[in-house]
Structure formats: C-alpha cells, structure tokens
Design goal:
This protein has about 280 residues and is α+β, with helices and mostly antiparallel strands. The protein has 3 domains: about 70 residues, no CATH class; about 100 residues, Band 7 domain (Tetrahydropterin Synthase, Chain A), CATH 3.30.479.30; about 35 residues, no CATH class. The strands form 3 sheets. A 3-stranded antiparallel beta sheet has the order 3-2-5, covered by helices on one side. It has a 3-stranded antiparallel beta sheet with strand order 6-7-8. It has a two-stranded antiparallel ribbon with strand order 1-4. Helix 4 crosses helix 6. The radius of gyration is 50 Å and the shape is elongated. It starts with a helix and ends in a 29-residue tail after the last helix.
Length: about 280
C-alpha cells in the first residue's frame, strides 16, 4: 500500500517536470517580455494637434509636444490636451432691451493656447470646455442681447455678433482660451412678437410705396408746370418781339388745318381767319 502511493507521487512529479533542453529558452523569453513591458510603459506618442501634460505622482511636471516621447514607467502619466480649433454650439435664452424673450443657437470656434496648456490643466483641467467655455457663451449672449431691442437684434445682427465676439474674447483670455469666431445661427421670438414685426415691416413697405407714388406725382406735376410756363414764356416773347403777327397766326392755322372746311360759316366779323384768300378758284369755261 505504501509503495503504491509512493510510486504514484513520483509519477506526478515526472509528469510536470520541464525538460532540461527547454529551460534555456525560458529566461530569454521572460527578459524579452519584461523589456516590451518596460518600453510600452516608457515610450508614448502625442498625436498631431495635441499637447501632452506629464504628471509625476499626480502633480504637473512638464509639457511635451507631438511625436514619440519618453516618460518614467509606473511613475509618470500623460494627459493629452487638444489645441486644434474646436466648435461649441449651444442654445441660449435671454431678454432683449425691450423685455422680449429671445432664443438663439450660438456657434463658437476657439482653441487652447498650447504654450499655456500646463497652466490650463493645473488650474482648470482637461474638461475646460465644459467648465469655462460653455458658461461664458451663455453669459455673453445674455449681456449683449440686453443692449439691443428685439428689432435691432435682427436689423443690426452683425453689430450684435461683433459685440458678443469681443465680450467673449475678453472673458476667455484670462484662461488662455483664444476665440476665433462667434456666430449667431438664428434668433427666435414669441409668435405674437414675430407677427407684430412682420406687420410693421409690411406697413413700412406700404408707406415707402406711397412715398414713391407721391414723389412721382410731384415730378409729373412739376413737369406740366414747366411745360405751361415754357409755353407762356414763348408767347410772351413773341408778343414782346412783335413776331406774333396775323400772318404768323394764319401760318400756324394752316399748318394745323386738315383742309376740311367747316359746315357752317360765320359772318366776316366772327371769322378768325379769312380762309378765302388761301383758296383758289377755277375760272369758268
């Protein structure tokens, strides 16, 4: 019984026994794996358009730039921060100067100042867009909208946009965030106010049309007055120069006469012109 157990124990050991020839390969494999682990923990890549902030035991140590970089394995970690142009599109609500509720979609392009990435991460963190940018956009929209009445927000849209861009630039500059562009996608008002604006625009258009018609009528009236004045001046000049003679009047009559004699002839005293002198009679045979 004892011998059987002893034999079984010896056979199990021999089953798990590593061949002597394969032992010499284990150490190199272990060394290679260890080197791979060390290299993977030491070397890292920062993609283009990003800045790396190296943390040593959780504290900010230095900034590294795109490419392959080296860090102390198991001691240092790297936080990547985007320095490309970023776009935030937010919906904002505010009150105009005349207390009209305004809703708008705002689109802002901005980027992080790469040279200040270390300070930004240390003071704000990697999610600076949510912490700083989004609230600043809301505050800017409210502040600028309150300076214009609802109608001016539409008619002076570019002026509103420039004022908002300038205000947002000042707010984000202390946080090393650079504003590139501020766009107001749209303005939305209540249905009642929107209808009132449209009615006012229609009325203004009608007034402008009436003004144009009045101006045209005045021009036509002035033209007729000028014509009448010109005719009066011409007749006055003819009278003064003596050129308006009976012979001249008869000439004017003949140039306008169609050649048809009137049906009823008045007496000689009532006849304006003596037509008979202009008519020739054929001699009787």
């Amino acid at each position: 019984m004892y011998d059987a157990k002893f034999t079984s124990s010896e056979s199990n050991k021999s089953a798990f026994k590593v061949p002597k020839n394969s032992r010499k390969f284990i150490l190199p494999i272990v060394i290679i794996l260890a080197l791979v682990l060390i290299l993977s923990a030491t070397l890292y890549e920062i993609p283009a358009g990003n800045i790396g902030v190296v943390l040593r035991f959780g504290a900010v140590d230095r900034v590294v730039y795109p490419g392959i970089n080296v860090k102390m394995p198991f001691v240092e970690t790297v936080q990547t921060m985007n320095i490309r142009t970023q776009k935030d599109e937010v919906q904002a609500t505010a009150m105009s100067e005349n207390l009209q509720l305004v809703t708008s979609v705002i689109a802002v392009n901005y980027h992080l100042d790469g040279s200040k990435a270390k300070e930004v991460y240390q003071n704000i963190g990697a999610n600076y867009a949510d912490i700083i940018v989004a609230p600043a956009i809301q505050n800017t929209f409210k502040a600028v909208t309150a300076k214009f009445d609802a109608e001016e927000l539409i008619t002076k849209r570019d002026e509103v946009r420039l004022a908002a861009e300038e205000d947002l630039t000042k707010q984000l500059a202390p946080y090393n965030i650079i504003v590139e562009n501020f766009n107001i996608v749209n303005f939305d008002f209540s249905d009642e106010y929107q209808n009132a604006i449209e009615a006012k625009q229609v009325a203004q258009q009608q007034v402008e049309t009436a003004k144009q018609k009045l101006a045209q009528a005045e021009i036509e009236a002035q033209t007729e007055v000028a014509k009448a004045q010109g005719q009066a001046d011409a007749q006055k000049a003819l009278n003064q120069t003596g050129a308006l003679t009976p012979e001249y009047l008869q000439y004017l009559f003949l140039t306008k006469w169609s050649g048809v004699l009137p049906q009823v002839m008045t007496s000689n005293t009532d006849t304006v012109f003596d037509i008979s002198k202009f008519m020739t009679t054929q001699p009787e045979p």
